[in-house]
Amino acid sequence: MKDAAKRELLKYLILKEGSALNEIMLEFGLTKNEAIQLINEINSYFGSDVIISNSQGIYMTEHSKMQCYKSVFYGQEKLFYSHDVKDRYNLILIELVLNKGFSSLQDLANVCLVSKNTILNDFKVIKEMLAEKGMSINYSRKNGYSVLGPEFMVRNLLVETIKDIFHSTAGRIMLNEKGFVTESEIFLLRKRLEKVETRIGIKLTDEQLEELPYILQMVIKRSYNFKDNWSFKIEKYDIKNTVEYPEIKNMFWDYECLSEPDLLYLSLQVLASNMVESALQISNGDEISLAAERFINNIEIYLAIEIAQKSLLKEKLILHMGPAIYRNLIGFKINNPLTEEFIEEYQEIYNIVLKSVRPFEEIIHHHLSKEEVVYLSMIVLSWVYQTEETDKIFTGAVLCRSGTSISKLLLTTLSSMFPEIDFIGAYAVRQFKEMQKNVDFIFTTVPYESKQPTFLVPSILDKDSRIRLKSQVNMEMQGDNRMVARKLLESIKDYIHVDHYHIVGKKMEAFFQNIISDPVNEDEKQDEFFYFSIENISFVEKSIEWEYLVDFTMGELFKRNSISQHYIEETKEAFYKDYETMLIAQDIYLPHARPEYGVIKMDFQIHIFNSPVRTPSGNQVKVVVALAPDVNQKHVSTLIRLNNLFLDNELRLQIINENNKHAITQILNMEGAEE
After folding, report:
1. In the predicted model, what is the mean pLDDT of the chain?
2. Where do the PTS EIIA type-2 domain residues begin and end (predicted)?
3. Looking at 340-354, 460-474, 531-545, which range is the least confident one?
4. Confidence at 358, pLDDT banded by 50, 70, 90
5. Domain span including residue 668
6. In the Cβ-directed half-sphere of 199, how many Cα atoms lie within 13 Å?
7. Of 277, 559, 582, 590, which is most buried with the most CB atoms under 10 A?
8. Is residue 280 part of a domain?
């Protein structure tokens, strides 16, 4: 491609996540028609839409970026003339780890395209980062700089840094342009990984198949440049005993000078690094199975629910925790780019899961990382908010790069938003293409070309995103006559007999009223919380004996005809048998039983004791939340909020010490109203 304008536009789009048409017009001094023509000419040159242009903006997929880079710029022109500070840190670390000996200040400045003084300033931050990981920078005036630390930790640092670069704009191109890898090396390893998939029965996601060849090749480069003997232990879970290890080891049959620890480490990357859905056979599966049962039991207690399809949830947890055990025991850091976003959006469910993971932590003998807890929270969230079955009119699929728990969470959210769509599953893009499934709607977190209506959505849908998406999907349904006909036919299919014409008329009226309804109101219906009034608050001045605690605290619910006497008896049996599992926060207990034992309507009663009750184990009971749970789990949203509120030590003490019921209801209702 010799046209300078086309080359400059390609370079501009490769180095950006996305752009608007008016931004391109302003950047290059083009009219709207000129900009569109230039984009069309580039797509025509490549014979496909390497530049995607639609109502959501103008952007390129990572695959298209790499395709255009290799075709137009590779070996001819460099794309990067500067790097932001985060990319500089990563480039410095990779250069130091891969270098056979030491790197000079000038070497690092050349890689990062900055002055030596800038590199010296960057080193101040990098030294702190390494110190937190148990490593340091080794400096010699004669030789320069290198990373000093246990070889296992240095290699983990390298892997973590590569993954971080992959989340930068055009990160793959950056690694190629700096000469850290070559396309022939990456192509070879990718093809071998695809063969290994078949041999050992795993399916790598798009994200893994993109990242792993780079990780493996750069670890191999480190292995060749680091000749000292080294080793590491996997104690309980020995990867050598898996059926997968020999097959993966054979991937590297022609790479000379790789030691047994080198091959073991490379195999571990394939088996355990970020593979949250892989079913690995580990030697102590019963331990994880029992831990999964205890974890589910904790969730049920904290949320006062009976989880549906419990055996399937247990299977999914075991499937996830198998590789997670490997990751934690050997020190791999899982990559979950949505960690902070998820915690912000679902803080309450995260806190519930955080309290429930102890059975898994007892296996690995330390706390699970925040990223791991978020993945477990995604799994739990998808199970807690199960929607009831409705007639399905259309079909849909969810696509993302990883095809893992992130997309499964999105699948659950979308299923609840669009009950008329039968979602066939959540897939990595490559998996979906291979399946060749025909669906009516595609929801994707990455750009995807399709003849079907396709919606580019964020991995976590906040309230505004849900409202916009509902509007977009409804407009698509209304704008397609075939979809309108299918929806109308489904609506009246049971009433097409001549004697039911008046019913048909009502169904049509309801149908047309539904498609123009306000999506904001529909969305708000999903987020209903129990409203606490002063009648739901009790100040208990007198002393209560332990054996009468349940009878006393359930009294108000019984008076309001929310529960039966049978429910009280069932609660007493469950609570006095295992009351410690019903402790939801310090000194706060949640006695309850299953709703089918006599709940008439959902209800709460908060009892605050002036004289704490003593449990048989000697602990104090300062607050009791008496609960009548809803059979359809409508109490869960409120209970999650209460859990989160009581975990806030300041708010918990404020409620315990408050003597004004109105003030307490304001605190309780404020937490629910904020959403």
Report:
1. 82
2. 530-671
3. 460-474
4. very high
5. 534-673
6. 15
7. 590
8. no
